[in-house]
């Protein structure tokens, strides 16, 4: 691909980024996260143009744009991280301490300020020394920026992982809150960063073959812009509503069951240190299992741990500990085991013989056939259809 073709693609991508940035900035819901993403796309778009025209001739014609490309990338990592944090946080409000993420930007700005204040003639004289300018391009500052990019990219991936673990402990149906698109986006961005860092050092050390990709690696950035643009237009709801876990006020905590007077004080345990005794855990566990058996709350496909805790009358964090530590499961696994057992009963019950697989799934508490099949097979090592056939065959030919 010629340099001219690359420049055309990068400029076209920057225009796309500009339009997408404007769309996201005007979204009325989830404002903070959308504006952070809007700012990130805007800056990356401008940076991609600078990368496409990163030639001595261009900067000699526009000397005041030189070294701007050293400053802007210091914002990319923090904006990516904060965008991810606001989408996955239980409380996405802005915190004062989060301004600290922009410390690298301000430090680099102060470092470069003497250069920015120079006259056009002084900058052109500097750029005329091609070897010196090239050496500085691959100097310590830009190497630190590479480390900054990778660090924030990894931090964003860890936030996604933490969010995925959290929803398993809070939701019985994760399809609506899984943020699969966000994980795909962060992974795409991270590998684009990783490839860019590889090309940076290939150029710095004059490695054969890889050096030829310098400048062209920004095509990955354009792919990211077009990808997120496609998502914004084809699935606008993911940018319009808050996707973070909503913090719900805790219900009033019921008193813990009192131990009999003749019972010796138990040894301190992890439950006591968290404000709940072993005796209370046993009582809560029994209460929970009875409620699940009698009331069948799992048939509500959108059941959350908060709703279940309120229905039983215990604190959410106590219920979570009972499920996690006494049963050894997360909330998603706990509820879906009940749903699978209910589905197993329905699959062989004569009154439901005319039901489709989807109807059985909905009756048991699942809200999609795909989730039902996946969870059922994971717990039984067979599909619902195979299980029904096996059970019917066993009933027809008893041993």
From TrEMBL:
PROSITE patterns recorded: HTH_ARAC_FAMILY_2
Transmembrane parts of this sequence: 6-25, 32-50, 70-87, 99-118, 138-160, 181-202, 214-233
Domain HTH araC/xylS-type: 286-390
Keywords for this protein: DNA-binding, Membrane, Transcription, Transcription regulation, Transmembrane, Transmembrane helix
Coiled coil: none
Source organism, top-level taxon: Bacteria
This protein's name: Helix-turn-helix domain-containing protein
Organism of this sequence: Pontibacter ruber
